[in-house]
Structure formats: structure tokens, C-alpha cells
């Protein structure tokens, strides 16, 4: 009898120990607001609009994140993350159930992580955190025109991808991703690859990345622009090949952080015409903690297009400002505004302003949005 009791107690201890080595976390973020836009294109011309919006700063999402300790510093890991529109309850990311992220893999304390599934590219991982569009201090509406460099992570992830991210080696990290076409006899069609690195030393942070997408109107290059709403004058930017690279740096001193980001995106065979263009983006940004509960942030971005599809060499000026107040560790309220203007030497479809994340472009070369919103994290 005593031996049976001892065995039962031992099994209970072992079961508890095994359970403690595994964890699954439910997490999420809900971002909702009221947005005023001075001009949106309609069938009756330009009209102002006041509307409820979801994800004006950070895309609303929920997810599951898990890890199992396999011993020797090795873990099995997974993430399933779903984006949704809080104002109507529908999925975002083209209706995918886990459209933001869905991956599984192995993680080592000494050697980094290898994961497989639907994942973010290296521009998002290493350059995005240095631009306000890739952070909670600016987000969706602060993205560079058409989100051409994919620094805002609300819309685009890469399917069928294997990804490596290194461990942290004295502040230095690096990684890469390859997305398979999954098409027999067409290995290079619709593939993607990306690399990046970052370095942190005290108050200084630096990051750089490269992203390559190809092939054709049904490619991930096209999906990148379609998903991010690059609609101008009833058309959608599609390209046979997209190459994006960039780098950024920021420096913290006292309650302030200042930064600069440069990116360039090359597009080949836009609209399947054989024409090509490139868009350069120059962003300066700052954020400042007025109090432990309140901060302000701002960014100025100058973007310009060139190449034989430049459409009169359009260039954009965009200014974004945000103030945020934390009601608690998990809930905050914010007020932000973005102004964008575009100039071009000739009449072109790119000659109208279009702030990222809005439902329609402006009817003119200028557009303003102002959003008052609330975020809750769980």
C-alpha cells in the first residue's frame, strides 16, 4: 500500500515537472479609433469622411505563443497570430485565419532559431523597429507612400518560408528568410528571400535589411502592393520583381530617442508593361517621454520616384505627429495626425495623395487624417 502511494506521489511530481517545462500564452492587442479625413475619392469627387477605424497605429490581433523545453538550451516553439478588424469582427490579411504569423520551429540559446511557416521578412525584423511606422509610436498611417518598403507589418507576410534568426552576440543579431514558390517546375516563380542584421550598443541601435520578391502579376510582389492598398486612380501597383533594401539608426539620450531611416524599393515590369521605377524614402523621427505615462512622437518622410515609370518623377512630403497617454500598463489612448502631399511634373496616377491605411486616396495632391483612438493589450 505504501509503495502504491509513493508511486502515485512520484508520478504526480513528474507530471507537474513535465507540465512546467511547457508553456502556451494567449496574447493580443485591440486598436480602435475615430478617423477624420479631409478628402477621399468617391464617384462624386473628393469628399471628407469621419469613420471608425481598426488598427490606425497597430493592427488588432490575437495569438497563441508556445514553447517546450527540450533540454540543453533547446526549445520547440510556435506562434499562431490572427489579425482582425475590430469594427466589424472580420479577418484582416485577405481573410486568412492566422494571416499575421503561423510558424513552428526550434530555438537554441547559443545558436538562434529556425522556424517554418508564414513569417515576417528581414526588413520588418531589423529595419522596421527604427522607423515610427514599425512601432507603437506611429504605426499604420505613418507608413511611407504605399508602404513600398514594407516597414509596416500589418498586411504582408511571406508564405512557405523557412527563417533563421541568430542568438544575441554582444548586441549583434542577424538572420535570413527564404519563401518557396511550392510550384512544380517553377522554383523561382513567386519566391522570396530576405536577409538582415542589427547591432545595439548602449543607447545606439542600428539595423539593415534586404528583401527580394518575384515574379509576375500573381506573385508575392504583387500581393505585397495589393495587400497594402497601393491603389492610385483605380489601378493597383503590381510588379514582376521587387527589390527593397534599407538601413536605420537611432540614439537614446535621457527621455528622448532620435532616428533616421533610408530605404529604396526597385520595381520591375510595373503593370506588366516592361517599365520600371524606384522609390527612395528618407525618414527622420523623434519620440520623447514627457512623463512616465505620456509621450509624444513625430516623423518627417521625403519620398521620390524615378525610372522610366516614374510618372513625372513624383515626390512626397509626409509629416506625422502622435501623443499617447497610458491609463494603465495595458490600456492607452492616443491622438495622431498625418499630412501628405505629392508633387509631380505631369499629370499621373501617382499625382494624388494616399495615406497608408485609409480606405481611399485623396482626390487631390494633399491628404490629412486625424485619429483619436484607444488600445488595449492582453
TrEMBL record:
The keyword Repressor does not apply. One of its GO terms (molecular function) is porin activity. CDD domains: gram_neg_porins (cd00342). Pfam families: Porin_4. GO terms for biological process: monoatomic ion transmembrane transport. Keywords: Cell outer membrane, Ion transport, Membrane, Porin, Signal, Transmembrane, Transmembrane beta strand, Transport. Residues 7-341 form the Porin domain. Residues 1-20 form the signal peptide. It is found in: Cell outer membrane. GO terms for cellular component: cell outer membrane; pore complex. It is a multi-pass membrane protein. Gene3D superfamilies: Porin (2.40.160.10). Homotrimer. This is Outer membrane protein, (Porin). It comes from Caballeronia humi.
Amino acid at each position: 500500500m505504501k509503495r502504491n502511494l509513493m508511486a502515485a506521489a512520484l508520478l504526480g511530481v513528474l507530471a507537474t515537472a513535465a507540465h512546467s517545462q511547457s508553456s502556451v500564452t494567449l496574447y493580443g492587442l485591440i486598436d480602435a479609433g475615430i478617423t477624420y479625413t479631409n478628402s477621399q475619392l468617391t464617384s462624386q469627387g473628393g469628399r471628407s469622411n469621419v469613420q471608425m477605424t481598426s488598427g490606425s497605429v497597430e493592427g488588432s490581433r490575437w495569438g497563441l505563443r508556445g514553447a517546450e523545453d527540450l533540454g540543453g538550451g533547446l526549445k520547440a516553439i510556435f506562434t499562431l497570430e490572427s489579425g482582425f478588424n475590430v469594427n466589424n469582427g472580420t479577418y484582416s490579411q485577405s481573410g486568412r485565419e492566422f494571416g499575421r504569423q503561423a510558424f513552428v520551429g526550434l530555438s537554441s540559446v547559443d545558436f538562434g532559431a529556425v522556424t517554418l511557416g508564414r513569417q515576417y521578412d528581414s526588413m520588418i525584423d531589423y529595419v522596421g523597429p527604427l522607423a515610427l511606422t514599425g512601432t507603437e509610436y506611429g504605426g499604420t498611417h505613418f507608413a511611407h507612400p504605399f508602404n513600398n518598403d514594407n516597414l509596416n507589418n500589418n498586411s504582408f507576410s511571406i508564405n512557405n518560408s523557412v527563417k533563421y534568426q541568430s542568438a544575441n552576440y554582444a548586441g549583434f543579431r542577424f538572420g535570413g528568410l527564404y519563401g518557396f514558390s511550392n510550384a512544380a517546375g517553377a522554383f523561382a516563380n513567386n519566391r522570396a528571400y530576405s536577409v538582415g542584421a542589427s547591432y545595439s550598443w548602449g543607447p545606439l541601435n542600428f539595423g539593415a535589411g534586404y528583401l527580394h520578391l518575384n515574379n509576375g502579376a500573381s506573385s508575392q510582389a504583387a500581393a505585397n502592393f495589393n495587400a497594402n492598398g497601393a491603389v492610385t486612380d483605380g489601378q493597383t501597383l503590381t510588379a514582376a520583381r521587387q527589390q527593397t533594401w534599407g538601413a536605420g539608426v537611432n540614439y537614446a539620450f535621457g527621455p528622448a530617442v532620435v532616428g533616421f531611416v533610408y530605404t529604396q524599393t526597385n520595381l520591375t515590369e510595373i503593370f506588366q508593361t516592361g517599365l520600371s521605377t524606384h522609390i527612395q524614402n528618407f525618414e527622420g523621427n523623434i519620440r520623447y517621454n514627457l512623463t512616465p505615462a505620456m509621450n509624444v512622437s513625430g516623423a518627417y518622410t521625403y519620398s521620390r520616384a524615378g525610372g522610366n515609370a516614374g510618372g513625372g518623377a513624383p515626390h512626397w512630403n509626409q509629416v506625422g505627429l502622435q501623443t499617447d497617454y497610458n491609463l494603465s500598463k495595458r490600456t492607452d489612448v492616443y491622438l495622431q495626425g498625418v499630412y501628405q502631399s505629392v508633387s509631380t511634373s505631369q499629370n499621373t496616377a501617382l499625382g494624388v495623395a494616399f495615406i497608408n491605411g485609409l480606405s481611399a486616396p485623396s482626390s487631390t495632391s494633399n491628404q490629412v487624417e486625424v485619429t483619436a483612438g484607444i488600445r488595449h493589450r492582453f
